Amino acid sequence: MNDLDLANHPNFFIPAFCGEFDGNRHTISNLCLDMPHSSSVGFFSKLVDAKICNLTLNNINIHGVNYVGGIAGLLGGSQIISNCHVNGEISASSYCGGCSGKSGNELYLSKCSFKGSITGDEYLGGFVGISYASVNCYISECCSKMDIRGDSYVGGFGGYMRDNTRIENSYFHGPVEGDSYSGNLIGYVSDITMINCYSASTSRNRISMGLFMESDDCFFNTDLNGLSYDNYAIGITSEEMRDIATYTDLSLFNLTEAWDFPGYPYDDLGFMDIWSIDPSINDGFPYLSWETFLPVEDSPEETPLPISALQGIYPNPFNPETTIRFSVAQESAGTIEIFNIRGQRVQQFKDFTAGEHEVVWNGTDSVGKSVGSGIYFCRMTAGDRSATQKMLLLK
Q1: Tens digits of per-residue pLDDT, 137-146?
Q2: Listed residue (38, 29, 35) closest to 8, CA to CA
Q3: What is the DSSP string of 340-392?
């Protein structure tokens, strides 16, 4: 698959899709779907039991009636969507989101970003318009930088989210405007969990309306939205939002657990380096470590030398196997190690030379015995560099 420019192919889309779609980190540009009388509108009109990864949709313009999204109009069955990025304008009367207009069952959304604008009447969200999960909706390490405007049930993450939904290590940066049930993260909630998230919204909304949300160690910016208190998040100033101590010094805001940044600042004991902070990036607010901020005009003309990096794991969650992608710099020897949640090494792949590599882990230990379902950690080591990512094996 190569990069695609759809400027000369209006209303091109993929109908209901079931299976695996790996974009291999390619970009599809200028997707234009002007379908004002249609529902279930998106690059995929509907996903059913699908795995979508490593895809960028740039400069899109999508318009429909109901169930409209950048990646898919509707999600049905069980979906895994990872390392996908959407940039552009999306509009609908109702049920409209950066990823999807509606998710009605099981969704695992990770390391995805959504930027641009969403407009409509009701059920509008940076990730999904409406989500209710009979099994699980798990959103991790995602960001929304959408300008979201509607009438009711409008939110930076979702318009309406309920039932078995968990959002962690994610953020929203942008305005949310609506007349009723508008939230800077979620318009209306019922029975969800949110951990280590923040809002840097300029709109004078609470984090969310509704009931029964468990929220731990979340923040909102009081300077930007003008509120001083919220039921679901800690109010902090812009200066505090730019200070790594806010997220890692447990004594400052009585945090349950420190956020995970590189270098173990203050009370940070994590080793996955999920978050980063830099005064010159993202207005100085925390950003997700996988995000790239190299401007196009500053990109080197020549092919850069390889660096040592853990580039991704897909699928994740997985059953029965997953592919680990990584690169090794020159004059380094690369090693991949798999650890269980108790810190015991269960598998190892080693002696990789300079370049890009892939290894497949089939859920077995070093003697070929199948390991149990649960959380595992993949650590890549090359020279003096190392990186770790979490994996979830489902059986």
Answers
A1: 899 999 999 9
A2: 29
A3: ETTS-EEEEEEEE-SEEEEEEE-SB-TTSPBPPSEEEEEEEEETTEEEEEEEE
The neighbour count for residue 5, using CB atoms within 10 Å, is: 13
What mean pLDDT comes out for the span 335-350?
91
What one-character-per-residue DSSP string does 227-278 give? Answer: ----SSSEEE-HHHHT-THHHH-HHHHT-SS----TT--TT---SS--EE--
Question: Which tokens belong to 328?
Answer: 């090794």
Per-residue pLDDT tens for 223-269?
998 888 788 899 999 999 999 999 999 999 999 999 999 888 999 98
What is the Cα–Cα distance from 69 to 219, expressed in whole angstroms? 27
CB distance 336 to 348 below 8 Å: yes
Cα separation, 159 vs 136, whole angstroms: 18
Q: Which two tokens stand for residue 312?
A: 């991704």
Tokens of 37: 């009388």
If residue 1 lies in a helix (H) or strand (E), which one and from where to where? none
DSSP secondary structure string, 175-210?
A: -EE-SEEEESSEEEEEEEEEEEEEE---S---SEEE
Distance CA 314, CA 307 (A): 20
In angstroms, the Cα distances linking 323 to 2, 275, 375, 378 are 21, 23, 16, 11
Mean pLDDT of 309-326: 85
Peptide bond connecting 265 to the previous residue in cis, omega within 30 degrees of 0: no
Q: Is the dihedral of CA 99, 218, 386, 281 positive or negative?
A: positive
- DSSP string of 131-183, one letter each residue: EE-SS-EEEES-EEEEEEE-SEEEESSEEEEEEEEEEEEEEE-S-EE-SEEEE
Please state, in angstroms and rounded to a whole number, the distance separating the CA atoms of residues 394 and 160. 28
Instruction: Reply yes or no on whether the pLDDT at 155 is more than 70.
Output: yes
The per-residue pLDDT for 330 is: 67
**Where does residue 228 fall: left (phi above 0), alpha (psi -120 to 50 degrees), or beta otherwise?**
alpha
**21-30, 305-314, 364-373: least confident range:** 305-314
Tokens of residue 180, six digits: 């009723």
Do residues 157 and 172 touch, judged by C-beta distance below 8 A?
Answer: yes
